[in-house]
Amino acid sequence: MSWRAEAVAIWAFAVRNLLMATRNVFFFFELLFWPIVGVVSIGLMTRFLELRSEATAFVLLGTIALSVVQVCQLEVAYAVLFDVWSKSIKHQFLAPIGVRHLTLGSWIVGMARGVVIFLILAVLGWWAFGVNVIAPGVGALLAFLAGCFLTAWIIGVGVCALITLFGNRAEAFAWASANLVLLLAGIYYPISVLPTPVAAVASLIPLTHFLDAYRAHYGFASEFSHPVVIGFGLAAAYALLAHLALMAAVRHARSSGLLLKMSE
Amino acid sequence: MLAIEARDVAKTFRAGWIRRRETVALRSVSLAVPRGAIVGVLGPNGAGKTTLLSIFATLLTPDRGSVTILGHDVVREAAALRRRLNMASGRPSFLWSLRVGEIVAFYGRLYGLHGATLARRVDELIETFELTTHRRAQYNELSTGLKQRLALAKALVNEPELLFLDEPTLGLDPDVSVRVRAHIRSLRRERGMTIVLTTHYMREAEELCDEIAFIKDGRILARGTADDLKRQIGLGDVIALRVEPPAPWLRNAPGVLRCADNDGWVRCTVDDAEKRLPELLRQLYAEGREVKSVQVKEPELEEVFVELAR
After folding, report:
1. Three-state secondary structure along chain A?
2. What pTM was estimated for this model as a whole?
3. Distance from CA of residue B105 to its chain's centroid?
4. How far, in Å, are A40, A70, A76, B76 from residue A56 at the CA level?
5. I need a labelling partner for A228 at 20 to 30 A (CA). Which of A104, B5, B155, B204 fits?
6. How is residue B233 annotated by DSSP?
7. pLDDT tens digits for range B175-204
8. What confidence category does residue B227 fall into, taking pLDDT thresholds of 50, 70 and 90?
9. Please, what are the domains in chain B?
């Protein structure tokens, strides 16, 4: 495939997801309602508990990261979910495209939505609770967002693989998977509070490292040496694994007939 | 030149983790489709028609056997092959919120079309399938007929050399079916496209297909032209006669398979009406009998279907 054909196929999925996002009311809830409710309720809780400003920043940064990851990973999962819901999945796998096109196209829209959510929540966090998310500097912020988007891509592609492998039964993973990250990656607490075996698992999640690196700028001692490097290293390894898993799942679906079962 | 060459294709679907269930969909199917032909795959529900089409369209991998499509192996060279084929179904389904033009454009992009080429192609297909007034309608607002026309438009977006149509006129109004069939014929006539279709409408198969393969329980039981199939099954032609006075010897005449009397008519099933009718008439006239009426009826493909499906 030429570079132009690659770009056109990726763009096809980006346009499709964008059009779907503008025409369905539940996207509004995903984009604005739930993230804002999350930041406001957690922010008010920090007030009630009379947390120091650093601790408030710690918790709210985690909340913002979770919202960004959740929205972006759902968008990646939509690469397959839209077609499963509309029973049209066979048409995209009939075309001369690879799984990279559908996941990357959806990821582009996911990142755009993630940036919009980040900006809204950042302004809200600063205005309502005095948390300045750009205080660590542009470089640190970009690394943090890149970490969030890579984590989202990995989870999203993993969800796509599970749906392609198990069909509609695996749909719940699309919403549940990000919450597992919430539990393990230290969204509301440092992972040092977790039991040692669980903390060991948490340290294998890229987002844990990106959150750790970003929070270090707010005065919290880093729990890892070179968290950004480790975070990107882990993300690259998982991204490759997730991509291979989705390819294998599509191959299996072609062999088991699930691709047809999930279509008209 | 063959567009499709399938040899001993077999496919079994397996389901269940604990209680394993197996459904044999195809057992050793062989089929050759010449380039530029329209070939129909007929058979009762669950016979394996859609499975066979899906294997040809690279959506399903066979368990056994080999399939070469347009010179490519359907498993090893699927990626190269997908560019050259497409498929439409009689029960189409696309993204509910996308508009007609957007759906065609989306699939066009998946085949590498972009910019002015894509816009031109989308316009052309929308016009061809009389979807212009519905261009901005969302998919879930379309009627069954419009959805099927959209499915055909989508299936032609890459100008395929080989087109698979799974019951293309299912549930359509008769006038729309006639137009769809005319369009299918024009695709072969004007573009030399090879078309493989499944259908439950015998008239459609007889009208469109150069060759028909009858499949049942995962096996091809008979194949050939509609006339070939009728001959293979041995249903025979029916000669109906009103003769005065009656001629009892008719049931024992050469070439007569069986005879039945009803309402003054004698209906004789013969091996070949063209050959037998002159002989019968000659003898009846020679005996001085009056032949008041004669009707000749060739067997319908539907009768072949019923016979084979039995």
Report:
1. CCHHHHHHHHHHHHHHHHHHHHHCHHHHHHHHHHHHHHHHHHHHHHHHCCCCHHHHHHHHHHHHHHHHHHHHHHHHHHHHHHHHHCCEHHHHHHCCCCHHHHHHHHHHHHHHHHHHHHHHHHHHHHHHHCCCCCCCCHHHHHHHHHHHHHHHHHHHHHHHHHHHHHHHHHHHHHHHHHHHHHHHCCCCCCHHHCCHHHHHHHCCCHHHHHHHHHHHCCCCCCCCCCHHHHHHHHHHHHHHHHHHHHHHHHHHHHHHCHHHHCEC
2. 0.86
3. 29
4. 12, 21, 30, 57
5. A104
6. H
7. 888 888 998 999 999 889 999 999 888 888
8. confident
9. 2-84+160-224 (3.40.50.300), 93-153 (no CATH), 236-309 (3.30.70)
Q: Which domain holds residue A65?
A: 3-261
Interface A:B, Cβ pairs < 8 A: 96
Mean pLDDT of A187-209: 92
Give the ipTM: 0.91
- Our CA dihedral for A166, A172, A175, A178, rounded to 10 degrees, sits at -60
B91 lies within 8 A of chain A by CB: yes
CA-CA distances (angstroms) from residue B82 to B57, B108, B162? 8, 13, 10
Which two three-digit tokens encode residue A78? 């939509």
Q: Shortest CB distance from B114 goes to which of A8, A20, A88?
A: A8
User: CA-to-CA distance for B45 and B249, rounded, in angstroms?
Assistant: 43
Amino acid B51: pLDDT: 94
CB B52 within 8 A of CB B26: yes
Give all strands of the β-sheet with B211-216 in edge-to-edge order: B85-89, B162-166, B194-198, B38-42, B211-216, B219-224
**What are A246's two structure tokens?**
């989705």
What is the residue type of B13? Answer: F
Contacts of B54 in chain A (CB under 8 A): 90, 257, 260
Mean of pLDDT values over B33-48: 92
Supply the DSSP symbol for B29. E
Is A205 a residue whose pLDDT tops 90? yes
Report the pLDDT averaged over residues B80-99: 93
> Structural domain tally of chain A?
1
Say if A140 is an interface residue toward chain B (CB within 8 Å): no
Lowest mean pLDDT among A149-158, A190-199, A231-240: A190-199
* Residue numbers of A between 93 and 112 with CB closer than 8 Å to B: 93-97, 101
B 151-210: CB under 8 A from A: 154
A86 lies within 8 A of chain B by CB: yes
Tokens matching residue B20? 């394993």
Query: Within 13 Å of residue A135, how many CA atoms lie on the same side as its CB?
Result: 18
- What value, to the nearest 5°, has the Cα angle with vertex A2 and ends B84 and B125? 45
